Amino acid sequence: MALTMYQASIPQLTRMLNNLANILQKAEAFAKAKNIDEGILVNARLAPDMFPLTKQVQIACDQVKNGMARLAGIELPKFDDNETTFAQLQERITKTIAFANSITPAQLDGAEAKEIKFSIKEWNFEFVGEQYLLTWIIPNFYFHVTTAYDILRHNGLEIGKSDFLGG
User: Fold this and answer.
1) Residues with Cβ < 8 Å from 149, sequence gap 6 or more?
2) Which of 14, 30, 31, 89 is at 20 to 30 A from 105, Cα to Cα?
3) Within the chain, which residues score under 50 in pLDDT?
4) Inter-residue contact 68 to 9 (CB < 8 Å)
């Protein structure tokens, strides 16, 4: 039996969002224990020309909510990109997971050949469903989750591979 679009997406994406939420919870506790203003961590970057932690989390969530909505053929949920605290980032992750879990296998399965077209700023993208999932959503999602992890690890949070992968 072949892997379905649903099986290839929702379970792994929501699992990783839960792992990211757990990492952010550890980061919040770390900031409190070390008497670090959480704004320092949520605005931290790996390099001056990279997005801060807040934007990494926002984009990871956007990959899930926008990607799954496009594949399911439903309206994309609109989230304001105004998170400035760990609690607000947790809320965004929670809303994203709830949205992803509201999508049924029937909404995604069969979307392998669906035309997906969208624009980001001046760039226009065209995919078919399977290509969109495998070459756009999943790699971009993991890039931003990994970068969020790396920002926090670089700033002294004691996390490891088991935190990233979950257990």
Assistant:
1) 20, 23, 159, 163, 164
2) 89
3) none
4) yes
Over the range 6-25, which residues count as b (16 or more CB within 10 Å of their CB) and which as e? bebbbeebbebbebbbebbe
Q: pLDDT tens, 121-138?
A: 999 999 999 999 999 999
Domain for residue 3, yes or no?
A: no
How many domains does the structure of the chain reveal? 1
pLDDT of residue 108: 96
Looking at residue 64, which CATH number applies to its domain?
Answer: 1.20.120.450
Q: Among the residues of 2-158, which ranges form H helices?
A: 10-33, 38-42, 53-72, 86-102, 105-108, 129-132, 138-154
